[in-house]
Specification:
This protein is an alpha/beta fold. It has six helices and six strands, in the order βαβααβαβαββα. β3, α4 (about 95-110) and β4 (about 120-125) form a beta-alpha-beta unit.
Length: about 210
C-alpha cells in the first residue's frame, strides 16, 4: 500500500499548519493512499550535537534515542511520500522542525540517502512574512536527499488557530498539491523507477582533511 507521512512542526496540534496538512492528506486518502501524521512541535526535541556517531554506526538511527526523531526517520524511510509542515517562526521553521531536518538529514547521508526518490513537499502557516524562506528550509531537505519535489509548497495565511480555513487560495493549493501527489504516487506504483544500486554512505562529512 502507498503511504504518506506528514510531520507537523507546530506546537499547536490543531493549529493552522495542522489544518493545511489535513487538507492535503484528505486528497491522498480519497485516492486510496494511507496517511499518518506525527506532531513534533511542542515536544522536547534535541538539536544535532555533531557527534558524527551516525556515520560510525550507520544503523539508520540517531544516537539520541529519547525523543521522536528516530520514529520520524523510521516512518519517513518506509513511506513513499513525505510532507513537512511548519508555521513561520521568526522568518523560518520552528526549532523542532530544524532539529528534525539536521538529524534526519545526517542519518540519511550516513546511510546512503534513506529518502532518495521519494516524493516530498512542504506546507507553511504564516501570519505575514517569511513563508517562502520557511518553505525553502524544508524543500532543501528534500533536494539534499535527492527526493522528488512536485511543484510549489502550500502556503496558508493566518494567525489564530483556524484562520487558514478562511484562506481560500491556500486551501485550494492544499487540495491541488494532495491531488497531484496522489496522481504521481499512483503512477509510480504502477511504473516504479528502475531499482537503484545500494548507495555508498555519503563520506563528504567524515573525510579527513589532508
Ligand atoms: C515565536 C513566533 C514567531 C513567529 N514569527 C512569525 C514571523 O516571522 N512571520 C509571520 O508571518 N508570522 C510569525 N508568527 C505567527 C505564526 O506563523 C502564525 O500564527 C501561524 O499561523 C501559526 O501556525 P500554527 O497555528 O500551525 O502554529 C510567529 C509566531 C510565533 C509564536
Amino acid at each position: 500500500m502507498i503511504k504518506v507521512i506528514a510531520i507537523n512542526g507546530s506546537p499547536r496540534k490543531d493549529g493552522n499548519t495542522s489544518i493545511l496538512i489535513r487538507h492535503i492528506l484528505k486528497e491522498l486518502e480519497n485516492e486510496g493512499i494511507r496517511t499518518g501524521t506525527i506532531h513534533l512541535g511542542g515536544k522536547k526535541i534535541h538539536g544535532c550535537t555533531s557527534c558524527m556517531k551516525c556515520f560510525e554506526n550507520r544503523d539508520r538511527k540517531c544516537v539520541i534515542d529519547d525523543d521522536l526523531v528516530n520514529t520520524c526517520i523510521e516512518k519517513m524511510s518506509t513511506a513513499d511520500g513525505i510532507i513537512l509542515g511548519s508555521p513561520v517562526y521568526f522568518l523560518d521553521v520552528t526549532s523542532e522542525m530544524k532539529a528534525l531536518i539536521d538529524r534526519a538529514g545526517f542519518v540519511s547521508f550516513a546511510n546512503g540517502l534513506l529518502f532518495k526518490n521519494k516524493l516530498g513537499n512542504a506546507t507553511v502557516a504564516v501570519r505575514r512574512a517569511g513563508a517562502s524562506r520557511t518553505a525553502d528550509s524544508m524543500l532543501h531537505f528534500f533536494l539534499a536527499n535527492e527526493m522528488i519535489v512536485h511543484g510549489l509548497p502550500v502556503i496558508g495565511i493566518g494567525r489564530d488557530i483556524g484562520d487558514v480555513e478562511k484562506d481560500e487560495e491556500g486551501l485550494a493549493r492544499a487540495k491541488n498539491l494532495g491531488q497531484t501527489m496522489a496522481q504521481l504516487l499512483n503512477h509510480l506504483d504502477q511504473h516504479p523507477l528502475p531499482a537503484l544500486k545500494p548507495e555508498q554512505a555519503d563520506e563528504r562529512m567524515t573525510k579527513k582533511k589532508k
